[in-house]
């Protein structure tokens, strides 16, 4: 604490970000401050603090800080550091999935309609997000049935291509075959965009006509398909909020807390239509409700579409957020506090959802803590680890008879999978099926990044787990000794009896099969095995396919690559038609026929 007392005296009056560290120098909390001196000192005053704050303060052994030009810069830096280090006591979004949108690149002469989950500043139009039981594929299918727009990315060139099946069944006007000109197709696109903006009447009438026609022709399966599309339109129409202007695009965000845990609910409206909503359980944090909600909003919109208006609780940091969005995302966003009217009713609805989610999710949160953070703490005790295993990496090797040898590295942070940090390795130096040597190669390549510029992307682990027994552990220990690695713990998990081997004893550590710490080890081991097997199968399939293709006349390296990129697996290429082969760059009809003939005769 003497170090902290001396540092507190030196804190500046500037805005910035402060970083709390535990006794192992691991980052456990990142926060922003308008005045660093005032904010950081609050933690170490003797004034009463909530239980969750006390829990964090007890673990603070040191702190650092970064001065920024403004509080807005501090907010942005705080968000970046939280995403990078995933501190134990920060609010982290556990269900941060992105929703699908329909993309239309209106800058193209013949725009393609497609599904995407990433919004880009590319001049295209994006419609959505689609949530709450609405399937984007159903919407695209309805667009194609009603307006004959195209989904494929086939280039429209001066030389007309052969019409595909969609043209013959009246689901596309085939601009690639020059069956429709630019002006005519533009009218189709205009009607389709009108539909996506919420005007469903024309599509509804077209589908009803087609349904009746199919029924009269006794094509009942097709008639049922049209009926299902009409039901989907009814569901879309039902989401319209009659009293809300169709020009309003707003997200409504409500917050609920019981003092220890908190939850947020978001309702999404686009053009007066309720697209759906989602709830999030937030990790423990010491912030005020206003700071917590502000931090959540910054994290959430780093991965989601930013609307023109966000309706929030009146304790949110309104001015700070408006300045943040304007400066960092170059978009003017109105942060609205509402007291009456339909927007107020929507906020009450979101608040009710957040409260209900909080009440129902508390047991899940506690169970998750037992399976993750508490399991890490218990593992440290059971295995006599020198430090809390915050970042764990697990390695596995996969091959068949020494062919296409691969290694996997999976990463768990505080007991939860961090899939963005997973890595795959293709074994380069080992001959034959030698798992020990393969493990040594993988670990040597991985550990070589420590202390280099690449450590920015490959953070040093606290614990490395090897899938295997004493033999595998000893093989990796050789690499540790050779590279003078002494500050990373190493254990192995043997499958047969689920025994854990460490470097501290010849005997294994037997952990109860009901213990959450063993279950966590099993999860990370099984995930490493799954990840390795998946990579091996993909690699083996592609290598097998490549060798098969090389036996076909007229297929050189460039054509093999093009076919591999298009089909990927033997199963897909065997079932492809001559027409599908002809659509691959560089594959003429004659070569396509040769490929088809080869597979018919040899496989």
Write the topology of this structure.
Layout: H1 2-9, E1 16-21, E2 27-33, H2 36-42, H3 51-57, E3 62-67, H4 71-85, E4 101-104, E5 113-116, E6 125-127, H5 136-147, H6 165-168, H7 182-196, H8 201-216, H9 220-238, E7 250-257, E8 262-270, E9 273-282, H10 289-300, E10 309-312, H11 318-328, E11 334-336, H12 341-371, H13 373-382, E12 391-400, E13 403-413, E14 416-417, E15 423-426, H14 435-447, E16 463-467, H15 470-482, E17 489-494, E18 499-502, H16 516-549, H17 557-567, H18 570-575, H19 578-582, H20 589-602
Parallel strand pairs: 7-10, 10-11, 12-16, 16-17
Antiparallel strand pairs: 1-2, 1-3, 4-5, 4-6, 7-8, 8-9, 12-13, 13-14, 13-15, 17-18
Helix pairs in contact: 4-11, 5-8, 8-9, 12-13, 13-16, 14-15
Structure characterization notes:
With 603 residues, this protein is an alpha+beta fold. It has 20 helices and 18 strands. The protein has helices at 2-9, 36-42, 51-57, 71-85, 136-147, 165-168, 182-196, 201-216, 220-238, 289-300, 318-328, 341-371, 373-382, 435-447, 470-482, 516-549, 557-567, 570-575, 578-582, 589-602; strands at residues 16-21, 27-33, 62-67, 101-104, 113-116, 125-127, 250-257, 262-270, 273-282, 309-312, 334-336, 391-400, 403-413, 416-417, 423-426, 463-467, 489-494, 499-502. The strands form four sheets. Strands 12, 13, 14, 15, 16, 17 and 18 form a seven-stranded mixed beta sheet that branches. A five-stranded mixed beta sheet has the order 9-8-7-10-11. α4 (71-85) packs across α11, α12 (341-371) runs parallel beside α13 and α13 (373-382) packs across α16 (516-549).
